[in-house]
Amino acid sequence: MAADRTRADSLRWMAQGSKTFAAALAALPDDRLDQPTALAGWTGKHLLAHVAANADALVNLAHWARTGEETPMYSSPQQRDRDIDAGARRPVAELRAWATLSSETLQARLAELDEQQWRRQVRTAQGRTVPANEIPWMRAREVMVHAVDLGAGLGFDDLPADFLAALLDDIVAKRSAAGDGPALTLAATDHPGSWAVSGVGDATRVTATLAGLTAYLSGRPALAVSRTGDEPVPELPRWL
């Protein structure tokens, strides 16, 4: 967990993000969920199934934290993908109800954890071993970013600035650890922070608002992102 990101922060962002996602979803008519999203190969129903299944998967980690019984998020990456595809074929009303119930269940299960259980080590879908303290952050990230992906008119600039800064820290750390993309230096026009991404070649300086930088680093379309010179900003490998 980042030194300046507390569990209280993550729980607050998870609650805010859950409300933001629910509001964005409520704004979409059922037929819009059959349409493609900005995520390649996914309709709105795929996205909704993913967000609902993610909450169920994090409930598994909450159970692991509470009982000590190893309970993976998913039985396998392949099963995760099959579950999303199957979920996307369910009626929209069922998907909406699933998304609501799974979100409420996750919040209830996390509220049951005591301090010792919050510190218990669990394993993410990517195979990282982390304390259960990370579960609210993992969920906040999902609901905030995917609220934008739903295409209901919400943008990264509608998300809380402190969440965006924490998300940018998180993505920078992951991309730097992977080291498979271009080296970057990032400067926000509306925030005092600056970031450096370790990677291939000489670092390219990229400038944008905090929201623009976060959208760019997460692989989403970003407005008003610029670099020194006339060339476009570098393309990035997949984030998650």
TrEMBL record:
Q: Which SUPFAM superfamilies match?
A: DinB/YfiT-like putative metalloenzymes, SCP-like
Xref: Gene3D superfamilies: 3.30.1050.20, dinb family like domain
Look up the domain of life of the source.
Bacteria
The protein's name is: Maleylpyruvate isomerase family mycothiol-dependent enzyme
Question: Which molecular function terms from Gene Ontology are attached?
Answer: isomerase activity; metal ion binding
What Pfam family is a match, any one? MDMPI_C
TM stretches of this protein: none
List residues of the MDMPI C-terminal domain. 158-234
